[in-house]
Structures are given as C-alpha cells and as structure tokens.
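Most newcomers find our protein records easier to grasp once they have seen one. Each record describes a single protein and holds just a pair of labelled lines. A learned vocabulary of local backbone shapes supplies the integers on the structure line. Nothing more is needed to start thinking about how sequence determines fold. The record below serves as our worked example for the rest of this section.
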Amino acid sequence: MSVLSGFSKVGGRLNRAVNMPAAWKQKAGSGLDRLKVEALAHGATDRDVAKAEAAMKIAYTEFSWSKRDVRYLIP
C-alpha cells in the first residue's frame, strides 16, 4: 500500500522498504520456511477490511510465496 490513510496512518513505501528486504519476497533463497504477515493496525485501529485483505494477499500476489507457506496476524 503506497498511500497512508486511516486513523493510524501506517504503511506506505518507506515502511515496506524498511520492513521487507528483497530477499524475503520469495521463499527460495530467503532462509525462511514460512512468511507471517502482520496487519494489526488495519484490523484493530483502522477497522478497514479492505486493507486487511490486501495485506493477506500481498505474499502471493506481489511477492512469490505460495499460499500454504504464509500465515497471518490480523485481528
């Protein structure tokens, strides 16, 4: 998500650049067995289902992770 919105004003390009190194965008070579997506502010503070859903889908729509290797922490 590139636009900051909602009550919490979290997210954006800088947040993604800092929190998602390029090596983690695919399972192969990342050293990770599983990717956990956290979007607490979207569900708890902003109460924005669309943002929470976008966060859940990012691992297999924009990155190269399979659905079976992704877990979520979203209220």
About this structure: Strands lie at 35-38, 70-73. Residues 42 and 48 are 5 Å apart (CA to CA). The chain has one domain: 13-73. The chain has three helices and two strands.
